[in-house]
Amino acid sequence: MTKFSVPLQTAWGLQRAGVRIEATVNNAIRIVLENTQIKLKDDFLIVNESEVTIRNRLNVSSQSLRKPENISLDEIAIGVVRTISASFGATFEEIVSAISRMLGYKSTSAVLRSRIKNSIEILEKNKTVVLYDNLIKLADLH
User: What is the pTM of this model?
Assistant: First the structure.
């Protein structure tokens, strides 16, 4: 849960969060998860029944928000489906390029490429997309 302390560190001008800050943040998260409509999914706090949207991170003030590991696979999946829907299918490289641009990146790091690949694999496993003749397509259009 360390990633949830980063915004506090930045706001307070700290280099790192101490043990007490980490414990307080973790306790607050535990209370929120027990008493609200918020759930923890893959290290991300998500409001139940909320719509996930893909967000451009080009002009964010916090550099931690630009790190690919801080982007939910669900958010990436929304971009994958949008990309495939717009052209009735796309190659892996086309999807990587499109998602990178949607997220506000000028170039694609190995970490971002890996997260996009992981998201596509989950979509394949859930039978949302299929690989057909080197194109990734929506399963219901195949």
Answer: 0.79
